[in-house]
C-alpha cells in the first residue's frame, strides 16, 4: 500500500490508522496483553498513526500506548492525541475544556504519560462551549513553535469552525465519524471544506460501532450501547441489520467480509473526498491484517454506486448518538455562528 499525505504539509500515512479508545473505554474490559499486541502488530505492518486521548480511561490509554512502544517504535509511530474531555472520579464526562491554560496543562501530562518530548498531532476532542476556537488553536500553535507539537488537528467540528481554526494555524486533519452508516459529513459541507482547504480526514466509527462487522446479531438481552447509540435501540436495530444484510452478497462476491467491504468503502473516498484515512478501532491483533487486506480492495465507481444503492445515505434508522451527546457536536449544527465566536 502507498502512503498518502494527511493534509497539505501533514505526515505521510497509510490509508489505515489504529484507534486505541476501546483498549481503555469499552463495554467490556480489554485484555492488556491483546491491546499491546495489537498496537505492536499495527506498527510492524506499517500502520503508524495511533489515535488516543488523555481522557480515554482517565490516562490509562496513554500509559498503555507508552508501554506498547518498543525501542525504536517511537520514531515510526505518529501519536494523535485528543484533549478537552473532562471526567469525574466515577468515569462520567463532566464537561469540555478548551482554555489556553488547560491546553498547555493537558499537553504536559500527556507528554509525561507517553514518555515523549512531542505529540505528532494534537487536537481538541470537541469544540469548547465557552472558549473561542481561535484561543484554543492559538495555544496549540504556541506549542508547535516551542517544539512540543508537530501538527494541529480538529475533531467533530463543522465547516465554520474548521475555517476559523485554519485561519489561526494550518489544520492537518479533522477527525469525524464517517462510514456507510454515517454519511452526514458529505451533506453538511465538512468533507468539501476539508478538500478545499487541503485538510485530511481521519474517519472513525468506520464499522458503525460494530453494526457493520457483519457478525453482530440481535442480543439476547439489553445491549448497553442502545442507551447512548440509538442505532442499537430495538426500535431501530432490525432496520439497520437488514441494511447490513444487503451488503453481504456484495462482500461475498469479492471474497471478503462485510467489515472489509465497509472499510474499503471509507478508504475509497480518497481522492475524491480529499485524503481520507480509516481509523480502525480494535483491540485484537488479527483485525489488523483483515483491515489491511481491505485497504487492498479496489472499488470501482460502479462498485461504489452499487454499494450506495444497497445502503442509501438516508436509510439508517436512528441518530448516531443520543440527544444529549449530539448537542455537544459542533459538526451536527447548521451553518450558524459557532458558540464562543468573537464579536
From TrEMBL:
<feature type="domain" description="NADP-dependent oxidoreductase">
    <location>
        <begin position="15"/>
        <end position="310"/>
    </location>
</feature>
<dbReference type="InterPro" id="IPR023210">
    <property type="entry name" value="NADP_OxRdtase_dom"/>
</dbReference>
<dbReference type="GO" id="GO:0016491">
    <property type="term" value="F:oxidoreductase activity"/>
</dbReference>
<dbReference type="GO" id="GO:0005737">
    <property type="term" value="C:cytoplasm"/>
</dbReference>
<dbReference type="InterPro" id="IPR050791">
    <property type="entry name" value="Aldo-Keto_reductase"/>
</dbReference>
<dbReference type="InterPro" id="IPR036812">
    <property type="entry name" value="NAD(P)_OxRdtase_dom_sf"/>
</dbReference>
<dbReference type="Pfam" id="PF00248">
    <property type="entry name" value="Aldo_ket_red"/>
</dbReference>
<keyword id="KW-0560">Oxidoreductase</keyword>
<protein>
    <submittedName>
        <fullName>Oxidoreductase</fullName>
    </submittedName>
</protein>
Amino acid at each position: 500500500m502507498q502512503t498518502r499525505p494527511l493534509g497539505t504539509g501533514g505526515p505521510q500515512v497509510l490509508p489505515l490508522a489504529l484507534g486505541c479508545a476501546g483498549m481503555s473505554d469499552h463495554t467490556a474490559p480489554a485484555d492488556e496483553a491483546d491491546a499491546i499486541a495489537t498496537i505492536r502488530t499495527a506498527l510492524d505492518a506499517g500502520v503508524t498513526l495511533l489515535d488516543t486521548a488523555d481522557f480515554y480511561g482517565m490516562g490509562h490509554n496513554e500509559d498503555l500506548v507508552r508501554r506498547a512502544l518498543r525501542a525504536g517504535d517511537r520514531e515510526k509511530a505518529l501519536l494523535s492525541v485528543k484533549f478537552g474531555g473532562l471526567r469525574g472520579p466515577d468515569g462520567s464526562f463532566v464537561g469540555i475544556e478548551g482554555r489556553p491554560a488547560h491546553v498547555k496543562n493537558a499537553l504536559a501530562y500527556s507528554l509525561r504519560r507517553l514518555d515523549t518530548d512531542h505529540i505528532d498531532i494534537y487536537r481538541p476532542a470537541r469544540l469548547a462551549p465557552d472558549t473561542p476556537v481561535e484561543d484554543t488553536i492559538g495555544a496549540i500553535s504556541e506549542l508547535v513553535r516551542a517544539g512540543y507539537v508537530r501538527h494541529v488537528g480538529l475533531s467533530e467540528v463543522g465547516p465554520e469552525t474548521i475555517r476559523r481554526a485554519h485561519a489561526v494555524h494550518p489544520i492537518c486533519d479533522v477527525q469525524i465519524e464517517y462510514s456507510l452508516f454515517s454519511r452526514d459529513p458529505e451533506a453538511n459541507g465538512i468533507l468539501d471544506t476539508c478538500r478545499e482547504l487541503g485538510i485530511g480526514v481521519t474517519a472513525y466509527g468506520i464499522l458503525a460501532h460494530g453494526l457493520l462487522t457483519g457478525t453482530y446479531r440481535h442480543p439476547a438481552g439489553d445491549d448497553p450501547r442502545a442507551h447512548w447509540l440509538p442505532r442499537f435501540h430495538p426500535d431501530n436495530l432490525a432496520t439497520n441489520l437488514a441494511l447490513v444484510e444487503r451488503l453481504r452478497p456484495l462482500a461475498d462476491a469479492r471474497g471478503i467480509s462485510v467489515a472489509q467491504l465497509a472499510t474499503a468503502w471509507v478508504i475509497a473516498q480518497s481522492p475524491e473526498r480529499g485524503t481520507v484515512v480509516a481509523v480502525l478501532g480494535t483491540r485484537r491483533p488479527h483485525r489488523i491484517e483483515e483491515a489491511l487486506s481491505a485497504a487492498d480492495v479496489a472499488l470501482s465507481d460502479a462498485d461504489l454506486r452499487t454499494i450506495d444503492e444497497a445502503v442509501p445515505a438516508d436509510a439508517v434508522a436512528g441518530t448516531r448518538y443520543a440527544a444529549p451527546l449530539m448537542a455537544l457536536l459542533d459538526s451536527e449544527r447548521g451553518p450558524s455562528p459557532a458558540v464562543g465566536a468573537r464579536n
